[in-house]
Amino acid sequence: MELQNRQDFEALLLRILTPLEGLYSPEGALLQLGDTGVSYPRRTVGMEGFSRPLWGLAPYWMGGGKAEHFAEIYRRGLAAGTDPAGPEYWGDPGDYDQLFVEMAAIGCAMLEVPQIVWDPLSRQAKENLARWLDTINHHELPHCNWLFFRVLVNLALDSVGMPCDLALMERDLNEVDSWYVGDGWYTDGTPDVKPQRDYYIPWALQYYGVLYSVFAAQRDPARAETFRQRALAFGKEFAYWFDKNGAALPYGRSLGYRFGQCAFYSACVFAGLEPLPLPEMKGIIVRNLQWWCARPIFDRDGVLTIGYGYPQLYMSEKYNSPGSPYWGMKTFLVMALPENHPFWTAPAAPLPELPALYAMKSADLLFQRLPDGQVNAYAPAEVEQNEHGQFSEKYGKFVYNTRFGFSASRSYVQLEQAAPDSMLAFVIDGYVFIRRHSEHFQLWGERLISQWSPFAGITVVTELVPQGMGHLRRHTVRSRIACTAYDCGFAVPKFCAGFAASAEGARAEAHNGELGCLVTGQQGGTGVVLDAWPNTSLYNPNTVIPAVRYDIPEGEVTLATKVESACK
């Protein structure tokens, strides 16, 4: 798929959104795209479906795009959804309501294209919309990236002369500032509660901070400049998360937003920021969009599915509804650029030259870039304890890789169902136990060390040492019970050209025509190939996992396993 000029991006945007046109409710306020469940009511699901396409449509209109049919739908929908006497009223939000999340897209649309989504509304519709948006100022919100939703809504209300709470906005911004940890990185909330650094920093905290720096440049120049400087610092490091083939690192929660992974760089281009040269940022955006469009992420009607590399519910969070994936439309912020902007004629340049190893200390991640362009990220299993689902898989793997992805378990009652790729999995009485979080960890030079416990009476100290085309794992295991452990490599797709797998002695290997993984016990062990259950891998619905099986005695034992990958 060619993605070079404005027309190419416009064609992709409309390809994604056109299948939705006939699916809106009669008054336009609701968009129901599927029947799977989520943690909020059906009416809210429909409102979420309505709001999220605005992340792409509003910039498209801002840049001169037409899409008049959508404009008419959204004007009717904004009026109907906020009319308390109407049949499609979105409802009165309560504390911690998902509706507050969806208000942000409406607020940004009001800031970007008031002439389309605000000015044409009747006086009564304007009052209803403003009253409904203002409810965000009168309820409790989670103290995380949600605070920026309130910031954006208050900026929007103020921009059109409607009642708002600028003092509360200031308090929210001060709290967000308290989460800053350096090098452009934040935590998504209080660090001691939500310590992990994941995509919520680039596609939420940094993205909204850059938007604020544009929309509030005149009213709050000092804070706007702070956000811009932090974005410049962050953008230099975030390039490490991308493979030269366009894939972004699959790591952390909310991966169902897919091509939202590169939205931060779209925000930088929109704001005139260059943490990287413009052609390099364009290259990241173009290759990431192309990588995603080569995968079966749409259903037969052209609607985005829940999943990652294909439709897959096992990896989803409880807040992923059928409309949730359209949060990825944030990447189309570049559509707001005028036709003569240099972005449209700049080449999609390769990634900048990056070192083979890089300790990203403010994110607590160790990055390894292999000669063929694939990326390994060594993770400490630093994670909040209030889990959203599958947190062990999303944060607790030893290594996350851009070519293999990772697996999300179906259960912990069988090794093949657990699919514990890139983990040391203990099997005790038929149950599988893995690293859920680290009690202590240290990013020490060119290695990562963590202490963790998979089960009461077992403590493990794991040292990860990048080397060659992979890494060495050293595990010091202290156990009060005898059991079995499997040190697992990456999940390799099967049922494809060139597939073969084998195990002999202390080694196990699997490969196909595109990539392969070799796992070798350095001090004994027995090679095995695990036949993972279908639909566990984020990348491919059918995989095997090469591993080394170890007998764990009572007392202390040291295990050493080498894991190597190869890609063509």
Give an overview in words:
With 568 residues, the chain is of the alpha+beta class. Helices cover 30% and strands 21% of the residues. The chain has 15 helices and 20 strands. Helix 2 runs parallel beside helix 5 and helix 10 (201-215) runs parallel beside helix 12 (263-271). The model has no long low-confidence stretch (mean pLDDT 96).
Which SSEs are present, and which pair or pack?
Blueprint: H1 6-17, H2 42-51, H3 54-62, H4 68-81, H5 98-112, H6 114-117, H7 123-134, H8 146-159, H9 166-178, E1 180-182, E2 185-186, H10 201-215, H11 221-238, H12 263-271, H13 278-293, E3 357-360, E4 365-369, E5 375-378, H14 391-395, E6 399-401, H15 415-418, E7 424-428, E8 431-433, E9 440-444, E10 447-455, E11 458-467, E12 470-479, E13 483-488, E14 492-493, E15 500-504, E16 507-511, E17 515-521, E18 526-531, E19 543-552, E20 555-567
Antiparallel strand pairs: 1-2, 3-4, 4-5, 5-6, 7-8, 7-13, 9-10, 10-11, 11-12, 12-20, 13-19, 14-19, 15-16, 16-17, 17-20, 18-19
Helix pairs in contact: 2-5, 3-5, 4-7, 5-8, 8-9, 8-10, 10-11, 10-12, 12-13
Compose a concise summary of this entry.
With 568 residues, the chain is α+β, with helices and mostly antiparallel strands. It is built from 15 helices and 20 strands.
